[in-house]
Automatic annotation (TrEMBL):
Protein name: Homoserine dehydrogenase
EC number: 1.1.1.3
Active site: K203 (proton donor)
Similarity section: Belongs to the homoserine dehydrogenase family.
Residue span(s) of domain ACT: 351-426
Gene that encodes the chain: hom
Length: 429
């Protein structure tokens, strides 16, 4: 019997309760595991009242629930940093396993949580933290152990993918689609966490950590969001046989880790180009396995709750039968932090869009600056824009070092003819 203490009755927490109510008997009959929802905890009496009416034991005091001896596992679905950190550490200290969907907490404080769990011989399961219903965590930890993950590219934030997909399908501006996404519940009232790439950075850091066996500090990886992507950029991408996606990227680079989050021009021949709407996808290259893609709902009540319940079933099978040790995560500590490849040392083909006054000699000045920085040009496209007196100059570079590219773009931006900050987007290699 695995006795569950649940904190959080919101979207995902409510979904977990719903699934457990539907399937607990089935799990016992078909899988031989017994789950019991021993206590449901939320901030207020109002939130727990419906569950109390159903006969569940409820609480508004998470500390008391964790300290009690009638739960075996803490399921933390409240979100945030400080209180969940306190609760999870307390649960581990008292000998209780943990299941969480809190990617932000694990990315920031995993170096405290995982070593403590390893010391105590306890499980910390977090399938729902990355990719919602996609079983990517378990795949990397167990399914791919016959291979080494050499690189991955992932669409890991449904809000951003929805916005970019709508912009491409309907030729709409970013702000218009963002407002629609907020009305439909795909974006928060304050969307910064999603559109500026922070959520993707948390998830990418966790995946990069699992793939590399080193702690990847999400606060040190390069992050660029999608708020500056324009309908014009999307249109140019189409002309070039590409689409724009916000990607989390990981590469093994010898003893170093290349981990970053930024928009990319993705060729239409790449499998990720067909992943649209709120769907997530993780594309991996492994030495023995080769290439593989996992796709699915990256968020939402039931997809995420399904991943939480899967962790609970896995935990119940381990603890009931005593046959599975906790997956080793004690290596996720400060002393084992990854050495990151600086973004300045990465290379790519680049899409550059310069907006200038319609004046003679501007193109010559731009090409000279690029040549002076040893940047080879693959294509140049010049078009008039809706604003009279302005032109867009699009340059596609050959593969070049980021440090050279940044220096050249700064020089172009300093030209008196340039009227807007230049757009820079990498091509997916």
């Amino acid at each position: 019997m695995l006795r569950i203490g649940l904190i959080g009755t919101g979207t995902v927490g409510g979904g977990v309760i719903q699934i457990l109510e539907q399937k607990i008997a089935e799990y016992k009959e078909k899988l031989g595991v017994e789950l019991e929802l021993s206590c449901i905890c939320a901030k207020s009496e109002e939130e727990v009242a419906p569950y109390k009416a159903k006969g569940y034991k409820v609480s508004t005091n998470a500390d008391e629930m964790i300290a009690g001896d009638d739960i075996d596992v803490l399921v933390e679905l409240a979100g945030g940093y400080n209180m969940p950190r306190k609760w999870i550490l307390a649960a581990l200290e008292s000998g209780k396993h943990v299941v969480t969907a809190n990617k932000a907490l694990l990315a920031k404080y995993g170096h405290e949580i995982f070593p403590l769990a390893a010391k105590k011989g306890l499980h910390v399961l977090f399938e729902a933290a990355v990719g919602g219903g996609i079983p990517i965590i378990r795949s990397v930890q167990e399914g791919f152990v016959g291979s080494t993950v050499e690189s991955l590219s992932c669409i890991i934030n449904g809000t951003c993918n929805y916005i970019l997909s709508r912009m491409a399908e309907e030729g709409l501006d970013f702000d218009v689609v963002l407002k629609d996404a907020q009305k439909l519940g795909f974006a928060e009232a304050d969307p910064t966490f999603d559109i500026e790439g922070i959520d993707s950075a948390h998830k990418t850091a966790l995946l990069a950590s699992l793939c590399s066996g080193k702690r990847v500090d999400f606060e040190k990886i390069h992050v660029t969001g999608i708020s500056k992507i324009t309908a014009q950029d999307i249109a140019f991408a189409k002309e070039l046989g590409c689409c724009v996606k916000l990607l989390g990227i990981y590469h093994r680079d010898g003893d170093r880790v290349d981990a970053r989050v930024h928009p990319c021009f993705v060729p239409n021949t790449n499998l990720l180009s067909n992943v649209n709407g709120v769907i997530n996808a993780v594309y991996l290259k492994c030495d023995n396995l080769g290439e593989t893609v996992q796709t699915g709902a990256g968020a939402g009540r039931l997809p995420t709750a399904s991943a939480v319940v899967a962790d609970l079933v896995s935990l119940a099978r381990s603890t009931d039968q005593g046959s599975r040790k906790a997956l080793p995560m004690g290596w996720f500590n400060v002393e084992n932090s990854a050495t990151l490849v600086p973004i300045s040392e990465t290379s790519a083909r680049y899409y550059l869009r310069f907006t200038s006054r319609d004046a003679c000699g501007v193109l010559a000045k731009i090409t000279k600056i690029l040549a002076d920085n040893n940047i080879s040009i693959e294509t140049i496209i010049q078009k008039n824009v809706n604003d009279p007196g302005k032109v867009s100059i699009v340059v596609i570079t050959e593969k070049t070092l980021d440090s050279k590219l940044s220096k050249a773009v700064d020089a172009v931006n300093s030209l008196s003819e340039i009227v807007e900050k230049s757009q820079v987007i990498r091509f997916l290699a």
